[in-house]
Structures are given as structure tokens and as C-alpha cells.
Input
Amino acid sequence: MKAAQAPPKFPAAWGRAATAPSLRHYVAMPIEPIRAEWCASAIQLWAKVGLTRPWNDPRADLERAISSPASTVLASVQAERLISTAMVGHDGHRGWVYYLAVAPEAQGQGHGRMMMNACEAWLHERQIPKLNLMVRAGNAGVQGFYRAIGYQAEDRVVMSRRLDEP
Output
């Protein structure tokens, strides 16, 4: 019986995106779990790129993610400035990504792709077989980004119920 082959390890500084020929303005950056001193900047970035909603407290979301062994927030910083983030976690069966954000001035340079590669690697290291994510129906640009990096829409209905309201 042939032993299962381990997936390739991608250096955190580049992920798979570094070899993509379409990345003309590529800049290598380390991606690592968010540091406490970057948390306020992450929340500001999320608001700046339109990820926050009044019914979700981004600070509480961030604190829950970094305090759980089943999740984290990844970040990349350049010249002491937060460039990108992603919250990644799993339920033991499916992985999820939230708050993927790239600073507007750094968009289109491969940072989102690199961050998703880092999220995929984080989940793969934990033997999670599938990554799910949700994109608002009207956000065609973001849907296009995910399609371009190999994600596809599935025929599912997402249902939810607020547990923090009476």
C-alpha cells in the first residue's frame, strides 16, 4: 500500500501565488497569525473595505477567532502597515474563511491570493478536507476573484438564525 503523500509546503512569504505568471507587481510578504498590536488596524481595514456590518461586532469576532484552537486570524504587514488579513477556522469537517481583506492600495498585486493560499495551508495542516466561504450575492467583483483562484459556487441555501437576539 502506498503511503499518502504530504501536500507541498508553501513558504509563508509567498504561497503558490509567487509562481503565477499574471502577478506583475508581486511583492513577497510574510503571512503569520495576527499580533495583538495589529488588531485595531485589522478592524479598521475590515471597515474600510466594507466587510463589517452593524449586527456583527468585528472586535468580538476577532477575539473569538484568536482565542480558539480551531481558528485564527492571519495577517501580512509591510513597512509596519497591515496589508491583508483573513480569519480562518474549522468545525472539524469544513473550513471557513471570513474577513479576507486587502488594503485598497495593495489590491490587484496577489495579496488576496497569497492569503487564501495561507488559509488553505492552515486548514490542510489540520486535515480539514474542504474550505467553504460565503460572498454576498451582489458582490460580483469578489465572486470573480474567488472564481479566478479556483473556487466555484455550489447549489446550496445558507440559512441562519441570530442567537444573540430575543
The domain at 16-148 is CATH 3.40.630.30 (Aminopeptidase).
